[in-house]
From TrEMBL:
Record's protein name: Carbohydrate sulfotransferase
Annotated TM spans: 38-59
Organism, scientific name: Neogobius melanostomus
Region (Disordered) location: 1-24
One protein family per Pfam: Sulfotransfer_2
Compartmental location: Golgi apparatus membrane
Gene Ontology biological process terms, A to Z: carbohydrate biosynthetic process; dermatan sulfate proteoglycan metabolic process
Source taxon at top rank: Eukaryota
GO terms under cellular component: Golgi membrane
Amino acid sequence: MFSFAGDRSVKRHEGARSAPPGNLRVTMNSVSVRRSSAVLPSVLTFLVIVASGGLLMMIEKGMLNTMEAPGPRAMGGSSRVRTAMSSNHDSEDVDLQVYQDIRNRTIKAMCSQPNMPHNIWALDPVQRRTLLKHILVNDQYGFLYCYVPKVACSNWKRVLKVLSGALENVNVNIKMNHRSDLVFLGSFKQAEINYRLKHYFKFMFAREPMARLLSAYRNKFGEIESYQKKYGVEIIRKYRKGYIKDSKIAGDDVTFDEFVRYLLDEDVEQMNEHWMPMYNLCQPCAVPYDFIGSYENLERDADYVLQQVKAPSSVHFPERQAWYKPITSETLHYYLCSLPQRLLKELLPKYILDFSLFAYPLPNVTAAYCRH
C-alpha cells in the first residue's frame, strides 16, 4: 500500500477556507508506477493489442476473462498508485502484480494520448456539462466526489448531507432527494471550478460494468414506474414484434435482451445516467482523481476516503439495507449468457473504457463457458 503526500490534507483544508484565485490551470498529474523489466514486454504486447483493434477478438475468445481486477487506484498529486487489496487476495501471486502494472500503465497510456481530454476545458460542451453535474462539492472538508448511479451514490449523498448539516445522521429514514442540500461543481464560475479541482481531494467509485448495468435494469424496469413509462414503453414498442401501435403497454416487463438492444442503438453521451458508461460520467482522463474506490470493496474504501477528508469519527458510511439484493456472479452469468452472442460482442465494446480504465476483467461470455 502506498501513501499520499503528507501535506496534501493540510493544503486542502487551508484552500477550502480561502477565496479561489483566478485562472488556475489544472493539469493531469502523471501516475508513477514501478518500473520492472519483467513486465515491460507484457505491457507493450497488451498496448499493441489494444491499439490494433485485437481487443474485440480477445473478447470473443475469452482471452481477457482470467485477469484479476486490481484494487482501487489512488492518483493525482502524489503521482503514486495505491494498491488496496481485500483480505482474501493477500496470498495472490506475482501474476496479479503483473496485471496491475498492465492496467495502471494502460490508464496512463490511454489518458496521455493526444486525442484524450487532459483537463475539463478540453471536453466538448456536452461532455463537460455531464461531468460538472455529477461532481459534488464539500467546501468545509475540501473534497469533490463524482457520483456514479448504481455505485452506492445514494449512500454517499447521505454522507455529504450529514457533513453539511442537512441530515442528523446517515441512518435517518427518509427518501433520498438527489438534488436538494447538495452543491454541484457546475454551479461555480470557471476560476472557482479550477481552484477546487486543483486543491480539493477528488474521488469517485467504480463498479464492474456489467453488474452495474444489470443492477440498473432490474431496479429501474422492475421497480420504478416512471422509468417503465418513460423508457419501458418505448423499448417494447421498438424492439418487441407486434407492439408498435399497442396503446396498453405498461413498460413493466422489458426483457434484458430488449434493454441491451436499446443500449446498442443509443449514443453513450445521450444515455440516461444510470446506464451511461462511468467514463463518460466522471471523465478520469480530464479529472486527476486522487482516489478511485471500488464498489466491490465499498466499506473499506469508503472508510479510507472519510479518513482522507478528515471527516468526524461520528460520521460513517451507511450499511447496506436489509432488503438489498446484490448482483452475484451467478446472476450476472445467467443474464449475460442468456443474450445472443452477437449482442454480447456489440455490448462489451460499448463499455470497454470502463473495463480497461477502471481495471475490471472482461466477463467470460464465450459460448463454451456459457454452456456450463
